Backbone:
DNA sequence: CCAGATAATGAAGCAAGGTAACTATGAAGT
DNA sequence: ACTTCATAGTTACCTTGCTTCATTATCTGG
């Protein structure tokens, strides 16, 4: 009841639809858990790259350090993350995932891979290789276009 | 500097990357114009389906009527939209696109189609048909999965 | 050893988007 | 006619994510 698939559906329409569906599903899956998108990104980076200082987190997430403070505050209050003193720099803290949360993230990673397989399974076998190549090519092309646009906007 | 494309990049990773790139580009393109995603969706629906009441807009956009009020407030203040009295219901107002904004939306539609063509152009010619079929199949499968999940969550 | 950079936080604020409770109007049944 | 109920919008308030500016504590290089 939300997609007007009547006429002229472009490739881009479909890709946007996919993006929107992902967002909707994320929002539903984490509703009421206290996991917001920004907080999930923090957890994701910690899972992927291990403990790090808030400065490093800010750089990875491309947000201000002040912001990371707030996000880590929330995650620490809910027990998903711990602040431990940095071994060699008493100004800094190391943010690390709580073991329980690390397990949650691993499970999410697994579900992520399963979903990927399920989606590929929806594609006709003869088309799969082409789809994987094609989506990669589209992502790369789009990355270049967006980067160029951003550089142009700075000037 | 934000995508870790090192190992094990799944199809889903690529699709998520594409979604994120779109969002980034949208955010950049409309920064400073007062067009936010929610407001753009309002304009899009008005362009596509013509003038309607705020209730109808709320239903189309799947947001609360209150929210539509705020969005229309902002769009009216910037002159992109007009509120006119409903001819037969004095409670309701009809929201209509300003002509100038309708032209802007048409231009966006054209750019949208151009971008779609550009992205398809990045795909090897021999893969194009398969990619179009495949992305359609993925979008459909994902739509079913998300809807099922939402129904399951209600129960 | 001190001048300046750096890590984190406190205080305040902004824009976007959301819900809940309220007012005004319409519609339907007796 | 009039009571009841549904509907259209809006006023008030909350949360999230993010920002800037100022402050404290610590590190580092001349």
Residues:
């Amino acid at each position: 009841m939300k997609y007007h698939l009547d006429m002229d559906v472009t490739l881009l329409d479909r890709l946007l639809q996919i993006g929107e569906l992902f967002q909707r599903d994320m929002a539903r899956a984490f509703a009421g858990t206290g996991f917001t998108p920004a907080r999930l990104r923090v957890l994701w980076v910690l899972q992927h790259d291990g403990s790090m200082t808030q400065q490093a987190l800010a750089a990875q997430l491309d947000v201000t350090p002040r912001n990371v403070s707030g996000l880590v505050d929330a995650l620490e209050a809910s027990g998903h993350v711990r602040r431990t003193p940095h071994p060699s720099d008493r100004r800094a803290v190391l943010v690390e995932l709580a073991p329980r949360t690390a397990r949650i993230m691993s499970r999410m990673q697994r579900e992520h891979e399963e979903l990927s397989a399920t989606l590929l399974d929806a594609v006709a076998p003869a088309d799969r290789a082409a789809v994987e190549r094609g989506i990669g090519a589209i992502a790369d092309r789009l990355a270049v276009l967006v980067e160029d646009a951003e550089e142009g906007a700075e000037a």
Q: What stands out?
A: The helical segments of chain A are 11-30, 37-49, 54-61, 65-77, 99-121, 128-154. The two ends of chain A are 42 Å apart (CA to CA). Residues 86 and 93 of chain A are 5 Å apart (CA to CA). Chain A has a mean pLDDT of 90.
